[in-house]
Protein 1
Amino acid sequence: MRGEFKTGMKAPPTHAPKVLLKKPKIHVVSFGCQMSFADSSEMAQSFLNKGFSSGESLDLADAVVISTCTVRQHAEDRAISFIGRLRSWKKQKPHRLLVVAGCAAERLGPKIKERFPHVDLVIGAKSIEGFSKIIEDILSEKYDLAAESAADFPQTPRLSQGSACDFVTIMRGCNYSCSYCIVPSVRGREKYRTVETIMEETKAKIASGVKEITLLGQTVNSYQSEYQDKTVKFPDLLRILDRIEGLKRLRFMSPHPHYVTKEMVSAFKDCPTVCHYLHLPLQSGSNRVLKMMRRNYTRELFMDKVRMLKSELPHLVLSTDAIVGFPTETEADFDETLSFIKEFQPAWIYSFKYSPRPGTLSSMELPDDVPSPVKEERLARLNDLAREIGRATLKGKVGQTVEVLEENENFGRTRDGFKVKWKGGDKSIGEVHSVKIVDASDFLLIGEK
Ligand code: SF4
């Protein structure tokens, strides 16, 4: 049967006797982006609904779900290495279930099972909506789940970075075709979850103690759906969610510059829960490179959006992504990125060296011709600039008293996205504190209560 195993399909039935599982445990591991994290949380829910509980320890787990990401090689390599290490975990108790899901699973498909026969199930990112049914089938085939277990476990998985904050995926896929990006081929075109589902999940998370929700989507602000006979666009969705009782903060990522509109800005102004922080991915300041990247905007159009945001929302904090060393990028192109960043002044920058991802247009059509030492040197210069801007922004906060939601002990974020660590006060995760900022490092505010 090797080689016939397809992404999103389960292994052929073995007709082995069923195993009785009492209080089974699932362990979920996510490698990569926040979408991958949110997907793993959603997949865990399918197990929890079947009576599993979330297990902290790999050794005690009866099932492991590995959620993979393929946007960067490093994340994919870490996931592959982890799958290899689970060979002995599976050998110890062969009834254990090992599921590999997500974007790398979509890209590599049957190759995962060929290389790692101890994997039971490979589910690509495009099949994630069908995950619940696939799991139901495989569980009923392999196991008898003791009935008593089902009632004992929470309906909402606690897999978030802290009990105060969690994610809600509102859309998957992307209708753009940026030449360096693997997302359209592994996730397909945009699909939107219904307003009802998003509201239900948000309310359930709030009921379980979550205070801050981050809406997720590859181009999150292109969201649209029909609700109560009307078309709900992203700004409308913000307004709907803002009214949910108990929600303290609403964030989203990652928006596409095209959908940064006056309507979205109005929703920022009108909705008290919407945090005044926006991650706006630039990628390059050179129009020539932007065109080769197929970003669908010019530096002028992008700057128009930045100016509009800064004039309408003076307290809005912006961050961005930038790629250095894209094929054919010259020193002059890179200088345009630096000059753009100086004018843009994002509070922080997620910067990356270009590396071709198999299956992307740029990897097939463009030479990876910027030498590695040049990429390194440009990255270092960009990071120096990012540090300089970040340091000045953070130093400007010293002396202010800010509102921080405690996510971990004495650690949290302000409404506009700055990370704060402070001394004093009792541990009270999920509470909002007033913290006086007394110092700042390059990326962190230091406070006192
Ligand atoms: S907008 Fe571009 S970079 Fe973002 S997910 Fe879509 S194709 Fe990828």
Protein 2
Amino acid sequence: MKKIAVLRCLRTSNNCTGSGCLKAFNNKTNAFAVYEAEETELAAFLNCSGCGDVQMPNNEEGLRKKLDRLVTIGVEAVHLSGCTKKKDAQGEKHECPVITKTAEYLEQQGITVVRGTHH
Ligand code: SF4
């Protein structure tokens, strides 16, 4: 059983149910289609810990704890939701730098990072 996690943007989670990510996971569509032949478990569905005026107390420490927990529970792949990319003034999307650092940390722990869930 392959353990998967989804990481999304705390700001976006304010007005997002996560249903698009969950539907894609449940139906093995979009970025989850690669698991078609495998048994999968959604072992975690977490937010980052925020930034700027929208953040959790002790956000860096809290985020690190969550990431280390993913390692402990044996998550093999973390999918970064589309909301972890933000549009610039020209309408082009760029990955949030906090998420880029987070992805690097996860990869250092031996976890595969996949960019995308359902779009
Ligand atoms: S750090 Fe990035 S992903 Fe997290 S809330 Fe801020 S903009 Fe969203």
